[in-house]
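call fold(seq) -> tokens
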Amino acid sequence: MVKRLAVFASGNGTNFTALWQAIQDRQLPASIVLLVCDHADAPVLQRAAAVQVPVFCVDFKAYPDKASAETAILTQLRAAQVTAILLAGYMRLIGPTLLAAYPHHIVNLHPALLPHFPGRHSIVDALAAGATTTGVTIHFVDAGIDTGQVIDQRTVAILPTDTYDTLAPRIHAVEHQFYADTLQQLLAQQRI
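ret:
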């Protein structure tokens, strides 16, 4: 059975593209059927249009609360018959509405070795802490900030001369391959 996936993204969308391309190249039993984005000017929107993936752009300010916005997202997910969600640079916490609808079927990619350096500034935090190793974690999403069950991790060395501008591209390069590999594993194991 082909899994119907939604990707949630807020920014550039390089992981969206890497996932979409891996599904095509590896002939994975999955299809990205919806992109959910929370920024009307995010470059990921053009990436989705280029590969003809439908988009739902949600303006959280247009709703009275987060639950209402997530209910609107859930309506779109159900209409597209989405079976699992992949977060790829989505810079919002997933709330109870979506967590309840997709238990253990929301996956996140985080640019650090959790539980170290959770949150949105993980690369900067790792550098500030003087860490010599960081990496990428893929985990299931729960109600906490990057606290869900770890699926897998990959390490990335922090060089003594590293700055954000030198470390971030190396982490992103690992993300692109690693997320695709993990998606393939999850599909093979029928975990999503």
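The mean pLDDT is 97.
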